[in-house]
Amino acid sequence: MTDSKTKSNAKDSKQAKLPAKNNFSEWYHELLITAEIIDNRYPVKGMCVWFPFGFAIRKNVYSIIRELLDPDHQETQFPLLIPENEFMKEAQHIKGFEDEVYWVTRGGTAPLEVNLALRPTSETAIYPMFKLWIRSHADLPLRIYQIVNTFRYETKHTRPLIRLREITSFKEAHTVHATWEEAAEQVEVAIKRYSEFYHRLALPFLVSRRPSWDKFPGADYTTAIDVIMPDGRTLQVGTAHHLGSTFAKTYEITYEAENGEQKLVSQTCYGISERCIAALLSVHGDEKGLVLPWEVAPVQVAIVPILLGDKEKVLSVCRELQEKLGAARMRVKLDTSDERPGAKFYKWEMKGVPIRLEVGPRDIEKGVVTLARRDGAKKAVPMVALVEAINQEAQELQLVLYGRAKKFNEGRVKEVGSIEEARSQTEAGVALVPWCGEVDCGHQLEDQVGANMLGEPQYQIFSEAACAVCGKKSTVRTYMARQY
RNA sequence: GGGGUUGUAGGGUAGCCUGGUCCAUCCUACAGCGUUCGGGACGCUGUGACCUGAGUUCGAAUCUCAGCAACCCCA
């Protein structure tokens, strides 16, 4: 604390640079403000304002989600308010959420006859409608999603984009199937789509089956996706739940099978929130600011004119380039603001712009532009082949980002054999721990390691090892980490 | 769930311990004008703040209490 104070006072610290990234928490907060992602000065705890620039990132990120879901899901929207009687129907579900629900109890000055819950999630809003919509096997499968805000009265420490009382960007999908097996397949499909989503954000991740005590309230099981943050803690950035027929029973969602029998449906739901953006910014960003993958950058190419000599000439060349790149459907910004080039470079680096073009008299003379990539690579490119060159560089940048993140990710996961080792590994990373699978041993693991169990890694097979608690031989492993 | 720290212009800060020197310091930002422009330009002129409420006091940025908010650590 005192250190950073004296540091910012001392020397010629003319410009606000970000704190070192190994001081993750401080770096993260500064980044959100300086790069104009979100403003957490709104005077209600756990509720933040999206800056237009941050919202533009959100738009691009969520359009990937839409693109991935739209082929076989329908986007829809349900109300924010849920009547108390519907909300209170599913006992397990209530247990999981009732401490976190905001209630609307008055209309104007008069008390409401039926209190209304602000959705903490929308199962209890959607499923009564599913009962009305679903009559026959021909109505199945049904797959819908919505992107909405949800409210949770968090008692833990709130954090911008990570732990909020208003989640502004909750994408929740809900699917209905004829059989349990079909629903199980849908959970796999969901994880596959999310995998592709995170791959496009150049983010590596872990997939695991949550332990029984940490599954979604009312679910048969929960599969989750976690990203390892720069400080080694994990952030849950996606979940897919097999709901079995729990809600179907409660909300009487049945269909008429081909043989005329009335059967309960099987359901799934799966969600992603703005935490995906927290992960995106945190994993790729550096001390100069954001580093954004091409696909989600609000500004993909920034053109900085070097106004020397014939200024009009330089500007007109820049405008031509801007038009040309715009025609190639790139998001281009020509920076004509009254700053010197160096200041503009820093500004656009803070904003995570993947490609910067510098255009000055020297370049024009040679028929080139100077192309600088956000990861530092810099080269002269002939103007006639500019579009192709940019596309090429954008692809390479994507590979660099993914490679870098992958390396970090792999360096932070380690197989361990004992509780001692697990404890030290989870100080700044993820431990892969042998576990017999018993609930008792699981709780003891969490207690003694001082970290949470993420669950069994999916799509991996392990050899036999002794459970770190009871010593029983087992092929089961579990990830353990300190979680956000 | 438990503990701790903090709240002064848009951002970062000095002042608080020891009440009056403060119509509040410095950096940055912002506005206007001019000179500039190949990695954070400079000059001149301006703009802008003591979280809210109550209390103590002749007098509160400073002390006390409460509220709100933010951050950190531990379970």
Structural key phrases:
484 residues, alpha+beta, BirA Bifunctional Protein, domain 2, Rossmann fold, Translation Initiation Factor IF3, eleven-stranded mixed sheet, 15 helices, 36% helix
Shape: globular
Output the radius of gyration. Answer: 26 Å
Number of strands: 25
Helix content: 25-40%
Name the CATH superfamily assignment of the largest domain.
Bira Bifunctional Protein, Domain 2
Query: What is the count of distinct domains?
Result: 3
Give the number of helices: 15
CATH topology of the largest domain: BirA Bifunctional Protein, domain 2
Assembly form of the protein: single chain
Polypeptide structure, described:
This protein folds into three domains: 24-284, Bira Bifunctional Protein, Domain 2 (BirA Bifunctional Protein, domain 2, 2-Layer Sandwich), CATH 3.30.930; 299-393, Anticodon-binding domain (Rossmann fold, 3-Layer(aba) Sandwich); 413-481, Translation Initiation Factor IF3 (2-Layer Sandwich). It contains 15 helices and 25 strands. It has helices at residues 2-9, 24-34, 52-69, 84-87, 91-97, 123-133, 180-200, 246-251, 275-284, 311-327, 341-350, 361-366, 386-411, 419-425, 439-449; strands at 38-39, 49-50, 74-75, 81-83, 103-107, 110-118, 142-151, 166-177, 206-209, 221-228, 234-244, 254-256, 262-264, 266-272, 301-305, 332-334, 355-359, 368-373, 378-382, 413-415, 430-434, 452-457, 465-466, 473-474, 477-481. The strands form six sheets. An eleven-stranded mixed β-sheet has the order 3-7-8-14-11-10-9-22-25-21-20. It has a five-stranded mixed β-sheet with strand order 16-15-17-18-19, sandwiched between helices. Helix 3 (52-69) crosses helix 7. The chain is globular. The two termini are 22 Å apart. Residues 1-14 have low confidence and may be disordered. The structure holds one RNA strand of 75 nucleotides.
